[in-house]
Amino acid sequence: MGDGTKVKRIEAVQVKGLENIVAVSAGNSYSVALMNNGTVWTWGYGENRQLGNGTRNNSSTPVKVKGLNDVVAIKAGNSHTLA
């Protein structure tokens, strides 16, 4: 995921819509990226609301985590993220 599809891949693919990434972290079936402007973006499975978009929906492309600005570090856990 991250490229807009639900295809499982064995090779890395470019994540759509993300440029100027400062850090990336991966949790259990989801990923999170910190951008150089301090915003946080997530994608993957969201059944535990770990994407931070207020829903349990999955996202095959990155979605911005609302309410997070000027973040300097991120760390993804099993089904949670610290910023």
UniProtKB/TrEMBL annotation:
InterPro entries from the UniProt entry: RCC1/BLIP-II, Reg_chr_condens, Ub_ligase/GEF_domain
One Pfam family per UniProt: RCC1
Domain of life the protein comes from: Bacteria
Listed PROSITE patterns: RCC1_3 (PS50012)
Transmembrane segments: none
Keywords, sorted A to Z: Repeat
Gene3D superfamilies in the cross-refs: Regulator of chromosome condensation 1/beta-lactamase-inhibitor protein II
Family matches, as PANTHER family: OS09G0560450 PROTEIN (PTHR22870:SF408), REGULATOR OF CHROMOSOME CONDENSATION (PTHR22870)
This protein's name: BNR repeat protein
